[in-house]
Amino acid sequence: MTDQIRRTGLLGGSFNPAHGGHRRISLFVADALGLDEVWWLVSPGNPLKPDAGMAPLAARFSSALVRARRAPIRVSAMERELGTRYTVDSLRKIVRRWPRREFIWLMGADNLAQFHRWRRWRDIARTLPIAVVSRPGYDAAAIASPAMAWLRQFRRPAASLLEPGEWNAPALVLLRFDPDRRSATEIRRADPDWAGRFTSQALRDGVTRSLIPASGP
In 10 A of CB 171, how many CB atoms? Predict the structure, then answer.
């Protein structure tokens, strides 16, 4: 049916580059929470990360397209069109633009550990449910983080989100699965010229269908 609610996970990040860990986590969460698909939101620029070492958007987007092949994953750089820089602003616009979808924000334990540094992070939690995936080396810091001290009261079992109409925010789900130790940082260290191997042609956004220029940041 065209008016059917579709459950959609949102995984934001630099994807500098995208790798198999992103894909594996996305498929795991989609299965655990009964998601129809996952949108990878490739950020034009992360306010918490330095510009040095950041590949152009087209290369990062292209690397995500390669990793998302033959999976219920759509790659988008919609923040360029939304005119937003911070997650809280992006999510509010996304929720308004796609009212027939139920969204959940996905992030790793490394991001939960620093979530209190995100702009208006409590408003993010009030906008969408949040699913946090364990990540080796970060779980202890995530549990002890200032954000977790507030979010703990909203913790819910994953099974509760499988029920229709239960996607109310704030809600926090903690998910554990076999650790995936791949990281973009290690990939860049081993292969600092990775971006040069990805396409230089214009690409099309997997959600909005607008063109992403081949050049530029």
Answer: 19
